[in-house]
Amino acid sequence: MKKTICCLLAAILLVSPFSVGVAAAPASSSSRLEQTILNAWERMATTVDIEDFNISVYDIDSIYNAIVGRHPEYFYVSPIVRYSYYEFNSRVIELEFRYCFKKGELSARQAELDTAVNAAAAYAGQAPTQIGKILLLHEYITNLCGYDKKLYTEGYSDELSSTAYGCLVDGMAICQGYALAFQLVAQQLGIQAEFVFSLDMQHAWNIVLVNGTYYHVDCTSDDLLLYSGFEGENKFDLTNIFGSAHDYFLKTDAEMYALGFYGWESPYAANGRSISGFWEDAVNMIYYYDGSYYYLREGDNSSGELMQMDAGQISGAQSIYQFETVPWSFGKDANPNDLYLYDGYWQGADTNITFFENELYFNTANQIYRLNLDALEAVPVYNLPDETAAFAAIGVKDGYLCFNKVFLNQNGFTVFYTYERTYVQPGKSNFPNLMGDANGDGKVTVSDVMAVRQYVAAFNVTIFKDLADVSKDGKFTAADVMLLRLYNADLISSF
Known about the structure:
Layout: E1 3-9, H1 32-43, E2 47-49, H2 60-70, E3 80-86, E4 92-96, H3 106-124, H4 130-144, E5 146-147, H5 150-153, H6 164-170, E6 172-173, H7 175-188, E7 193-198, E8 203-210, E9 213-217, H8 219-222, E10 223-228, E11 237-244, E12 249-251, H9 253-258, E13 287-289, E14 292-298, E15 303-310, E16 318-324, E17 353-356, E18 359-363, E19 367-372, E20 377-383, E21 389-397, E22 400-411, E23 414-424, H10 446-456, H11 465-468, H12 478-488
Parallel strand pairs: 5-6
Antiparallel strand pairs: 1-3, 2-4, 3-4, 7-8, 8-9, 9-12, 10-11, 13-14, 14-15, 15-16, 17-18, 18-19, 19-20, 21-22, 22-23
Helix pairs in contact: 3-4, 3-6, 3-7, 4-7, 6-7, 10-12
């Protein structure tokens, strides 16, 4: 009887950035095999004998992945699993486990995960409806977590990237980590969410129960990814840019098939009626604040709209602010032959809103604005003078307001996107490059009026010219001084 040893990469499921995949039918949670494996994980045993269960090597992948998917709480189990089997009958003899942490540190890591789960549940739990809670959890995870790009650039990912810990604590995951994190938090919210995976497509996501009907939710595929540095068809870099699409949110089986998904097996049929909601219009993140959802919707070729939606409803959003945006500089004009370039105007992935210190911010290609929700007036707080760069969304990370800038570097027919993130200390007075902040002290006061007045009068003073030109005419005149005076007197609210 010859015995062979193989390696089962149980949790390392690839996701294509263009199409995604499928799931296996979960076995009964009371099965002896499942309980045997769970007992081994509890003891952090390195091996477990499963010969008596008569499991074929052709079935072990689906069976093991289903067990992993039903138990996101075992975050410390490595996705790398070895197994031995008899060649003459293909029966699996033994599983060999690895663990991401040592026993002595498991308690501290569990506490970190519990804290992260509670934070996610608290955010999503603000919504008054079940759909709203699922939506906010979707937004929370896609904003918090970035895709582990090493899976593409180096051919492998960190072991923790396949776990709920990787997604919620480290903020880095692949599809399985996203799905297990969503499932773990949903359970705390009292929402039935199941793990779905496809061996055919090497992808994982979730099915959720909404008012008695199942729907698919795929946070990984909805996490907007920045492609920076195309070199050939299969070489690129992925970076999280504070973004969320909603193409894979609350979808039926038929809609998932239409989106290119196939091959999943699940006892949970998502064959109910399609759900249409306001999220289908959102070009990026949806935020909850004080009983309403806020998001951006695409207007015409060069405009956008800020929308407000009653959190108790899923349709009937109101437009509360419209704005024009200059074209993003990376358009087809830069390279008409590059299919990946933007069309020159609106790019939803690069425009975003966020709430910071109870105030709403949004960005266009070259400006960041703060919006007063009572007066519905937008004040520009940051101007991007660099014409070789553009904003690539804003967001909040680790308690800081931050914004991304992306630069286009063209070399023949090869286009490279380089990326830079700036973190802003809490407090508006620390916002960099505040429009009108001529002396660069982070505030717009009478000192800035005096500085520009002296500069116009040819005094030997230094000013930040891109911030002092509040009239935006490319010159420094009495018009700039007057506008600064009016702003400081609260007679105007923006430049």
